[in-house]
Structures are given as structure tokens and as C-alpha cells.
């Protein structure tokens, strides 16, 4: 466990494994890195030093509680990279972490060797479905916390996966992302995402991964990210938004093959 201070925030991160550094940036939710990467990160530690930061809004990072921006969270990732690594890293961002990681690669190309963007998007106002879903989450977070959790679980996973785990499994998923103040700060940031001007500045070798059954950030957003990043590669996983949970082996093989390429 380590902490780095940046712009008034004490940013927590963990560093495990050995080898080239792979930084995993979490998505929306105050559970932060642990809820996203707790199960999957160990799959990479045999070949990589895995660094998992908790961005502002996550429980283990403290700040002033104010509004968040993509650039502000990108600065936190930059600070973690500079503190935890001796040179350029492989950087992976999931969901909210995708625009944040893209911003890091655009603003500090010296720090990013390879970039992976999973279930991400460039511009919230460009997708009325996404804008309305996030607005619904914002409203439910205040008025109906139980329904907030149910909506997140329902859209975070594919219908097929939900039916596979059954009622007991689905009910167990619902408390994983409660509408804490930190989570709602993330949702507010998500509503304002617009990194279109940064995407042409990305020079790192990039892989964009879309999720074909994604009911949170529809896969068309990943396809648009790929189209906007010159020279990027693209792959799809037949899963819902949290593809590394539904199709963990496929996700690990896809990401591992990309970051280990010569």
C-alpha cells in the first residue's frame, strides 16, 4: 500500500508482482480498484508489476470532496505512475477509467508505452442513451438507493450472465456499487466527459476493447474511440459492461497478448 499527494488529494495505490509495469485504472464506484480489479489483477502479476490506483471518489483516497474532472483524475494517474514506475508503463482504463487513461496518454505520452481502453467513451452528450442512463443513476442515487444498485447490476452485466448466476447471484451483485457520495461524484464526472480534442494526441500503441452486450456504455462508443485514435487496434468481447468478470479468461488473454507483444 502506498499514497501519493497531488492537488490536495492523497491518492492510494497498490503495487504487486514483478516485471514491466501494468497500471489498471478503475471505473465508476467508490469501491475503486478493489471492486474492479481484486479478482483479475492477480492474473497479470506473474509477468507484470501491477499498479492499481484509487482515484478521487474511491473510499481509500481522500480529497476535498469537490467536483471531479477527467484532467484532474488523469493528473492523479500521472502522479501514481511517476511514483511507482521508473519509465513508461502499459496503461489500461475501464469504463470511467478509459477516458481518464486516454487523457494520460494524450497529455503525458512519455509515460505510456501501450494503452488499453475497455468499455470506454469519448463524449457523453453524443449518446442520448448513455446520457439518460447516467442521469437516471444520478437521480436514483438520491431518491432510491436500492433501485440505483439494481439498475447498475442490471446494466453492468449481460442478460445471459444474469440468468446464468440466477436470482441469488444477482441479488448478491446489487450491493457492490452503492450510491455513496464518491460514486455520485464519479457519475457527475461521467455526465461531463468530452475527450474528443485529446484523442488525436495519443501516440502510444493502443488497443480498444468493446463489449458487444454492453448495456451501460453501448459498444458503438468503443468503436468510435477506435476510429478516433489513429493506428489503434480493436477487439470485442461478447459480454456485458464488466467483461473481465463475465469473460475473465478471454479478457486476460486479450490484454496479456497485447501488453506482452514485442
Give structural notes.
Helix content is 43%, strand content 19%. It is α/β, with parallel strands linked by helices. It has a single domain, classed as Rossmann fold (3-Layer(aba) Sandwich), CATH 3.40.50. An eight-stranded mixed β-sheet has the order 1-2-4-3-5-6-7-8, with helices on both faces. Strand 5 (89-94), helix 3 and strand 6 (112-118) form a beta-alpha-beta unit. Helix 2 crosses helix 3, helix 4 (128-143) runs antiparallel to helix 7 and helix 5 (145-156) packs antiparallel against helix 6 (159-173). The longest helix is centred in the middle third of the chain and has 16 residues, at 128-143. It is globular and about 45 Å long.
Amino acid at each position: 500500500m502506498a499514497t501519493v499527494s497531488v492537488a490536495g488529494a492523497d491518492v492510494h495505490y497498490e503495487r504487486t508482482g514483478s516485471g514491466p509495469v501494468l497500471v489498471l485504472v478503475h471505473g465508476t464506484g467508490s469501491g475503486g480498484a478493489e471492486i474492479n480489479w481484486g479478482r483479475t489483477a492477480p492474473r497479470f502479476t506473474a509477468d507484470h508489476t501491477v499498479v492499481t490506483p484509487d482515484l478521487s471518489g474511491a473510499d481509500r483516497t481522500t480529497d476535498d470532496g469537490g467536483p471531479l474532472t477527467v484532467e484532474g483524475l488523469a493528473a492523479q494517474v500521472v502522479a501514481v505512475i511517476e511514483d511507482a514506475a521508473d519509465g513508461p508503463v502499459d496503461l489500461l482504463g475501464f469504463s470511467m477509467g478509459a477516458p481518464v487513461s486516454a487523457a494520460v496518454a494524450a497529455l503525458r505520452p512519455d509515460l505510456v508505452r501501450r494503452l488499453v481502453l475497455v468499455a470506454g467513451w469519448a463524449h457523453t452528450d453524443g449518446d442520448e442513451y448513455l446520457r439518460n442512463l447516467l442521469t437516471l443513476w444520478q437521480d436514483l442515487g438520491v431518491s432510491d438507493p436500492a433501485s440505483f444498485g439494481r439498475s447498475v447490476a442490471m446494466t453492468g452485466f449481460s442478460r445471459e450472465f444474469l440468468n446464468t448466476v440466477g436470482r441469488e447471484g444477482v441479488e448478491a451483485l446489487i450491493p457492490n456499487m452503492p450510491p455513496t457520495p464518491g460514486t455520485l461524484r464519479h457519475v457527475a464526472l461521467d455526465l461531463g466527459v468530452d475527450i474528443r480534442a485529446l484523442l488525436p494526441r495519443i501516440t502510444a500503441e493502443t488497443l480498444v476493447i468493446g463489449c458487444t452486450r454492453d448495456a451501460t456504455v453501448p459498444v458503438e462508443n468503443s468503436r468510435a474511440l477506435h476510429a478516433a485514435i489513429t493506428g489503434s487496434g480493436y477487439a470485442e468481447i461478447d459480454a456485458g459492461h464488466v467483461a473481465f468478470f463475465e469473460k475473465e479468461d478471454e479478457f486476460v488473454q486479450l490484454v496479456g497478448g497485447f501488453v506482452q507483444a514485442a
